[in-house]
Structures
1.
Amino acid sequence: MSNPDNLILIVEDEPKIARLVADYLEGSGFSSHHLDRGDTVLPWLEAADPAPALVLLDLMLPGSDGLTLCREIRRHWPEIAIVMLTAKVEEVDRLVGLELGADDYICKPFSPREVVARVKAVLRRSRATQEPDSHATTPLLSLDHEGWRALAEGHDLALTAVEFQLLKVLMQAPGRIFSREQLMDHMYRDHRIVSERTVDSHIKKLRKKIHEALPERDIIRSVYGVGYKYQPEG
């Protein structure tokens, strides 16, 4: 029996592929909903209750392409995992998709069993970083969302609102690389125009405060030419 709490949104314009994937997902305890046009995705997500745990997102879609949708989903619903489906195998497409916030990438043709396995793996990673209450914790850092405070082993880091927001976004997806553009979208919800150097400046200050509390740990990593990621281990 499918579980309504494990809703998967399948965005795929080939009905046979969508039906096959849906059957395998539902056979593994998931529920699913299918959309075959890109321009229907964002309106559906805005109205969805509950929101899907994960979106299986085809790259080539009528109405709006998958990369554009990936960017918008990650901007407005950072908690939703994204697995991209594509027939394009060039490395540049993989890098661009992952830079925009995709959690994983599956190339066609694929086995539906592989899709189910990837979905389960991505959701395990995603849910391992989420807490059921207002305090999202890691062994090193904790965020008090209601009080807008970040604690490093119990010590308040005294972050500014922007620094707190940056850390919150990065901690929601350990290991995921966020581009400067993505981080700017979360820093400034009014979409004001700011330089990418502004992001670098805030990250520098945030890293300094964390380093003062945890001098032996490099938790926020720079990824040359792409952006930043939160790496609590390793």
Note: Confidence is low (pLDDT under 50) at residues 131-138.
2.
Amino acid sequence: MRIFGFQEFGSQDVSTFLDVEEPTLQPGSVLIRPKYVGVNPADIKVRSGQRQGAFPVNFPMAMGREATGVVIAVDPNHALAQTVHPGDWVFGGTLAGTGAASDTAVLLDADQTARIPDGVPGELATCIPVAAGTAWDTLQSIADEVRTNEGASASLRDKTLLILGAGGGVGTHAIQLARHLGMKVIGATSSASKRAFVQGFGAQQVSTNQDDWLDTLHTTVSGLPSPRVDAIIDLVGGEILRTTAENLCTSGSGVVLRSLADSATAEEYGGSGITRRRTTEVFSELVSLLGANEFTPRVSKVYSFDQAAEAFAAVEEGHVQGKVLIKIS
């Protein structure tokens, strides 16, 4: 079969189409015929070698960590085999050490695989394992800390969430899922051109490329019914995160901070990184919310398998809005 993958760590140049043997069913896996593959910034970090020690790689390995498709076989000794059968439509995360960008077969982790309910488009379900799942896990972590600080009955309703880097895949899902939980959302982006895009998901927008952006943020917050920031999701890191934390996460502020991009800096200000759950139960919950129109992934572009290099390059350049997918014909 043909994959778009890599045989060594490196830059974009090490990615290419490769002919490899078709995988066979492994313990704890689901073998699928792929239809859609999600493309994410983390895929670039895996290929570059930045995730060595944290993410297993078996060369040659296909790019991508999430896929949707039709079940070929399920590990009969796994509990999923009781509810998922050959011919079913499923989505999920790839088995450790394997990738998703293949024209023939993909191994999903059975612990991270869920059925797609009738009426839910497969391309939208593909967006759940990485982008929507990360956003949901982050919000649940924030909710846990709020309950710890304010009592078991506390919720996120009517609290204000600031998202740094709100225009990408995780950010746009975080906006919608936070609003589902009743939060007020402010989306910070690097460009004013993303204003309409972010506002279209129901968030107010500020642009971090302006010198006075924190003043704009404070003005925006002061106009809300509860004039304070209660939680921050950081998807950018670096100086933007540090400047924001220095202004908002002061001693006794009670602001809950979670960072996907820069956990070390977040920890300096009393925050933390993001712990992913990646379970069938979580993914099933999210696909149910998707089916109920509680959130809708924004797919910016769907590439063909032959255009896989262009798809990953577009994400690596960092200018896409929403999610990029590859469709396997």
Note: The chain has a mean pLDDT of 95.
3.
Amino acid sequence: MAPAEENDSGMESQEGSQSVDADIEKEPPQDDSTAPREAPPKKQPAIEGSEDDEEPETLSERLWGLTEMFPEPVRNLTHVTVVNTKLGICKAYGFSRSAAWIIFSTSIILFAPVIFEVERANMEEMQRSQQKQMLLGPSSAISGGVPPLLPPPVQQR
């Protein structure tokens, strides 16, 4: 490249102000946007089913790309909101599980003896009814358990 530089410097001395324009034309363009080249072939969007080897964008990739249009404080606030909402939902779920366990287990412990006692009283009543039926006959069970006639109590004076 050294001989080319000598030729360029020799040109500058001969041509003067015109050599600046020639140097710009001879140098390869540094910026791709200023180079008058052919436009690259346009790729069709992934939605329409391009035949390229690239995989189509996923929904999460598209949403992540949309975050660039929002300023940094908005993105941070959104992140904090989402994280705190998720944490709140997880804690509320855990609390509701614990509360449900406490309520149901306590109710069983407190009300089970009452339920057993009521059932025992019903069983005793049923046994008395069956005993009356055996002693007095089937008509006493149907009539509603009319007590047998007892002599009147003796009054003491």
Note: The first helix runs from residue 2 to 15.
